[in-house]
Amino acid sequence: MEERIAENHHCGICEEKKRQGIHLYNMFICTECEYNMIHTEPREEKYQYYLQKLKNINQPTMFS
Ligand SMILES: [Zn+2]
Predict the structure, then answer these.
(1) For residue 11, how far is its CA from the centre of ligand 1 (angstroms)?
(2) Residue 55 Cα, ligand 1 centroid: separation in angstroms?
(3) pLDDT value at position 36?
């Protein structure tokens, strides 16, 4: 299932404004980062970077 987005969104991984990508919970991930993540192996340094970024998704922001 793929959702097409026509407007610019702030990518939570590369921190750039991108037009196309996916929404993962409260985070937007551009198609480039999505592709990069899929093609990054766990032994690569980038992988840890992506993991750190993705961790933010699982931590719901508390609004008080
Ligand atoms: Zn990105």
Answers:
(1) 5
(2) 16
(3) 96
Q: Where are the domains of the chain?
A: 9-58
- Does residue 59 carry a pLDDT above 70? no
Residue 5 has pLDDT above 60, yes or no: no
Which residues are placed with Cβ below 5 angstroms of ligand 1, an ion? 11, 13-14, 30, 33
DSSP of 5-58, one letter per residue? --S-EE-TTT--EESSEEEETTEEEEHHHHHHHHT--TTSHHHHHHHHHHHGGG
62 C-alpha to ligand 1 centroid (Å): 25
Whose tokens are 């026509």? That residue is: 6
